[in-house]
Design goal:
8 helices; globular; alpha/beta; 8 strands; two-stranded antiparallel sheet
Amino acid sequence: MLDDLSLSVRRGEFVTLIGPSGCGKTTLLRLAAGLLTPDCGDVSLLGTSVAEATADKRIGFVPQSPALLPWRTVLDNVMLPLQVNRSVRPEVESDPVGLLTALGLGDALDRKPRELSGGMQQRVAIARAFVFDPPVLLMDEPFAAVDELTRETLRHELLSVWQASQKTVLFVTHSVAEAVYLSDRVVVMSAVTHGVQRVLDIPLTRPRDDLVETTGDFLDLERALRLELRAGSRAA
């Protein structure tokens, strides 16, 4: 459930939603993806309705589970959106092999999903979302099911690919460090009001590498975000 929520995301911006379970993060993401219809109010993307943006394949979605087809290879799974939707946006020029290579899967193109680790499967799901070159990318806790070391690697790889494409991203996470590292802005959502509690700017210089997480500026922002989350928790 969401109530009295207003949020704008600028083109090319990386915005992360964070907050306690039940605050509406995934609901908001599903509204943006056209998977849910609001009871009232409007959702628009790129100056048009969500339905039109979806029909024109301008939204990429990465779920928590990779949802790969087990009988297709890594490359074939990533190629699937192009094979199914080529007639919708014929102007798209894609490089699936290059995407997979950038995500560390250049040597796994012919493997089946059962031959991959959880982190590798999620890399395939990310490449699949990028391959059709949608200007908007929605990501619902894509790294939640992997261990912390793999998670760190995945977010570094995601940021590298995103910095090359500058897509508009709305990203859901429960990880404070992840939110600070990836984002231009972090939207803290409230379990009390089921709306936006506060929006924090993340003024870290881009491009960012993993060493930014050791800097004082990063740690200060991480602390500020944790305090905001605790304030919301106490209010609950």
